[in-house]
Amino acid sequence: MPRKLPETDVVLVGFGWTAAILAQELTQAGLRVLALERGGWRDTPTHFPPTVAPDELRFYWRKEMFQDNARETLTFRNNTGQMALPMRRWGSFLPGEGVGGAGVHWNGQTYRFLPSDFEAASHNVKRYGPLADGLTVQDYGVTYDELEPHFDRFEKLCGIGGVAGNLNGDIQASGNRFEGWRSSNYPNPPMEMTFAQHRFAEAAQALGHRPYPAPSANMSRPYVNPLGVQLGPCSYCGFCEKYGCGNYSKASPQTTILPVLMQHPNFTLKTHNEVLHITRDSTGRRATGVVHVDLEGETYEQPAQIVILCAYQLHNTRLMMLSGIGEIYDPRTGEGLLGKNYCYQVVSSVDVFYEDKFTNQFAGAGALGMMIDEFNGDNFDHAGLGFIGGGYIACWTTNARPIETHRTPEGTPEWGSAWKKAVAENFLKSTSISTHGASMAHAANHLDLDPTYKDVHGRPLMRMTYDFTANDRAMTAHLTEQARRIGERMGGREIRVKPRQGPYDSMPYQTTHNTGGTIMGSNPANSVVNRYLQSWEVPNLFVMGAGVFPQNAGYNPTGTVAALTYWAAEAIKTRYLRDPGPLVRI
Amino acid sequence: MGQHFLTAAEKHCLDALTGRLIPSDEYGPGAPEAGVTTFIDRQLAGFFGRGDRWYMQAPFRDGIPGQGYQSEHAPAQLYRRALASLDAFCRATFGGRLYAELETEAQDELLRQMEAGDLSLEGVSAETFFGLLWENTIEGFFCDPLYGGNRDMVGWKLVGFPGARYDYRDVLDHNGAPVRLEPVGLMGGPQWRVD
After folding, report:
1. Within a domain: residue A581?
2. Best interface-test mutation with B: which of A239, A360, A412 has the largest number of B CBs within 10 A?
3. In this structure, what DSSP letter does residue A442 have?
4. What is the CATH number of the domain that holds A64?
5. If I label A405, which of A184, A413, A510, B54 is the partner at 20 to 30 A Cα–Cα?
6. Rounded CA separation A165/A173 (Å)
7. Does A237 touch chain B (CB under 8 A)?
8. SS (H, E, C) A68-104
9. Are A480 and A496 in contact (CB under 8 A)?
10. How many domains is chain A partitioned into structurally?
């Protein structure tokens, strides 16, 4: 029997970005907040100072910052005709574990989704007619206009560097003219660009595009955020994504919120405590708390007035399934919503090799890049193209970590002397253009529980059934062709096009942008949570994170995840606390 | 420094294998000279070799390539079985000679067959072994020298990677000109060698 603990007002499951934001907001509102994190404590001086952080083998290849696969992983297959097998180690995506979650080891590329992204179904149907067969694309149920102040708050919390493209409706020449209106400019200027970005910008401009600096959570100058927390200027060391920043230069829960939150008397954090399931009362309509287990195997029942799932998208979805809240989606019948609309990100690249120019890509940062948005979302006419959605095209200089990044020209052997020669000759003289495409929801792609494989506690693993859709294959082919055109104009000796083809492969790293499974929407028949991220079925249960995206847009998700969190926090503070119950009544 | 797993015979075979993957040539030292075998030995002796952070629960089945590593053997045991099987195969096929004793052309051909999945080795998938071997060879060639590979920073010097440096702000405005910096590792410069 779990040992029963004293009740708290709010229990947060997981302690990454969304939990840190909610804990800060809800303790300020006077609530007692407890966060349960299954990983350990992590901070800059103790876990990734500059003398420790730049270690490629330890942090990426031995995966020190990521979830331990031995305890829990997921199984994967491309379609229901195959047997799903466990991802015995991480590959295509890297879920975090420990305080700060994946917010510690992200790159810091921080976007707002386009206004039309939030209305992907109605917008596209209106402009292009009915969606293609099998697409289960939906509107979010919340609009860009409603989220704008919350995007703004997150950008100021993080000290995002960038150039506005639309200030209160006034289009700014040097920013992204396609972006939704913003109530104020970015709090910091953009990063300092290097040779590769200059060449990309010139080439894109020559093709009639309007390149602009990518918005960055790596500090372009010293910054003090609205909570009074200081961040230091980025030193462009080239160890961002997959690494903790030793320099207090990358926005993370640790560098923006925790120095204030950890001192708050109403806030408690318990690390190395994994939540096993959500408990409910006899009606099933009210969460009574959670059951969690510590490293010694002792279980606890933690009662709470409000339960908020703040773990990674995959874990939030699985925790709902293991708690029996809601019906699991079945692709054969179309019934059930939990696990529905699992989406990812469809990426490709074009490498550019120079003969006598040096890109010196070791001098870089996670969000150092120039980009174009002409082919993102519905920024272009899709008539006759056979797909909806799009993505951005960017030239990043993020790193030259050599185990991971050693580009070779087309036709280079995979190993041996010729490989070695090609790596030596091209290492400092190459760059890459990335396309970062949307992923549209499809009836065949979903998450459910695996019938065979179990976690360390003996519970079923999550099973992922996913492949690229016809829509997304057409989309990525279109984006890759645009990137190829730019690459050819960047003045290199040659290019190498790396399109996204064949079935989805769960092993090569692509992005940690998994979405869907606990989708938001306008009514209980089409979604797991309402527009305030509140469970339709259990109104004192809220679900944060990219699991609520009905489909994924062509941008990195963190900015939108955070804006939705602030939006939900405001609804809880201003409405739910006054009148606990459903915030949307049908 | 570091724990050991491999026998002398296994190291001999591994030197030969990694020496074909990244040979010593006119561009500089290859994998054996960079300490890749030492690196792999230490890795196999530790949590990586034991598969402590991999999901190693049964059942084990052959998957599609997109499902990744599905061997029932954690890395250390995969190496042990594959190296033994490879040498047994060579002895039987090449008149009693070990892999390390073959001509380089024959060694390369065997590597190509393993890579393509065209070689059957007793009790182990040659293709899976090749994938892990190549991955660990690159790691050992380019990792921080702290781990026993990239000895004298030969991997970093080959490509011009300056290593674990803190601050590149002064060189950002290079405009395509070379930026040559002596590499440094977490323990210091290349001359700070601890064996």
Report:
1. no
2. A360
3. B
4. 3.50.50.60
5. B54
6. 7
7. yes
8. CCCCCCEEEECCCCCCCEECCCCCCCCCECCCCHHHC
9. no
10. 1
How do residues A382-441 score in pLDDT, each as one tens digit? 999 999 999 999 999 999 999 999 999 999 999 999 999 999 999 999 999 999 999 999
Judge whether A513 counts as a catalytic residue. yes
Tell me if A88 and B56 make a contact (CB, 8 A cut-off).
yes
CA distance B22 to chain A (A): 5
**What backbone torsions phi and psi does residue B88 show, to the nearest 5 degrees?**
-65, -40
From A583, A375, A335, A336, select the one nearest A476 (Cα to Cα): A375
CA proximity to A530, closest of A513, A514, A515, A548: A548
| C-alpha span between A243 and B89 (Å, rounded) | 42
Contact A401, A365 (CB under 8 A): no
Test B68 with A87 for CB contact under 8 angstroms.
yes
Give one DSSP letter per residue of B10-23, joined into a string: HHHHHHHHHHHHS-
The alpha-helical segments, DSSP class H, found in A100-234 are 120-128, 144-158, 195-206
Contacts of A83 in chain B (CB under 8 A): 61, 63
Element holding A34 (H helix, E strand)? strand A33-36
Range(s) of the domain holding residue A433: 3-68+95-576
Residues of A in contact with B115 (CB under 8 A): 414
β-partners of residue A166 are A171
* Residues forming a β-bridge with A10: A33, A306
**pLDDT tier at B194, thresholds 50, 70, 90:** low
Confirm whether A289 is domain-assigned.
yes
AA identity, residue A456: V
Residues in contact with A516: Cβ distance below 8 Å, sequence separation at least 6, in sequence order = A313, A340, A341, A342, A343, A441, A447, A546, A547, A549, A550, A551, A552
Q: pLDDT band for position B190 (50/70/90)?
A: confident
CA distance A227 to chain B (A): 27
Q: Do A505 and B65 touch (CB under 8 A)?
A: yes
Query: In a mutagenesis test of the B interface, which of A56, A57, A97 is the best target, namely the one with the most B β-carbons within 10 Å?
Result: A57
- Provide the phi-psi class of A389: left if phi over 0, else alpha when psi is between -120 and 50, else beta: left
Q: Per the domain annotation, does A83 fall within a domain?
A: no
Instruction: Report d(CA A211, CA A369) in Å as an integer.
Output: 10
Model pLDDT for residues A540-555, shown as the tens digit of each residue: 999 999 999 999 999 9
Is a pLDDT exceeding 60 seen at residue B1?
A: no
Instruction: Give the H or E element holding residue A420.
Output: helix A417-426
A106 Cβ contact list (under 8 Å, min separation 6): A217, A240, A241, A250, A252, A366, A512, A558
Strands A391-396, A3-4: pairing is unpaired
Strands (E), A251-405: 267-270, 273-280, 287-294, 299-309, 346-353, 369-372, 391-396
Is residue A84 pLDDT above 60, yes or no? yes
How far apart are the CA of B136 and the nearest CA of chain A, in angstroms?
10
Q: Does B70 touch chain A (CB under 8 A)?
A: yes
Cα separation, A118 vs B137, in Å, equals: 46
Instruction: Examine residue A327 and state whether it is found in any structural domain, yes or no.
Output: yes
Q: What is the ipTM of this complex?
A: 0.97
Nearest CA to A363 among A401, A393, A394, A395?
A: A401
What is the Cα–Cα distance from A568 to A548, expressed in whole angstroms? 12
Nearest chain A CA: its distance from B103 CA (Å): 15
Label each residue of A500-552 as H, E or C.
CCCCCCCCCCCCCCCECCCCECCCCCCCCECCCCEECCCCCEEECCHHHCCCE
- A348-366 in b/e burial notation, b at 16+ Cβ within 10 A? bbbbbbbeebbbbbbbbbb
**Does the beta-carbon distance from B66 to A505 stay under 8 Å?**
yes
How confident is the model over B34-38, as a mean pLDDT? 98
User: Using DSSP, how many helices (H) and how many strands (E) does chain B show?
Assistant: 7, 0
Residue with tokens 């609309």: A341
**Which of B128, B141, B168, B174 best probes binding to A when mutated, by most A CB atoms within 10 angstroms?**
B168
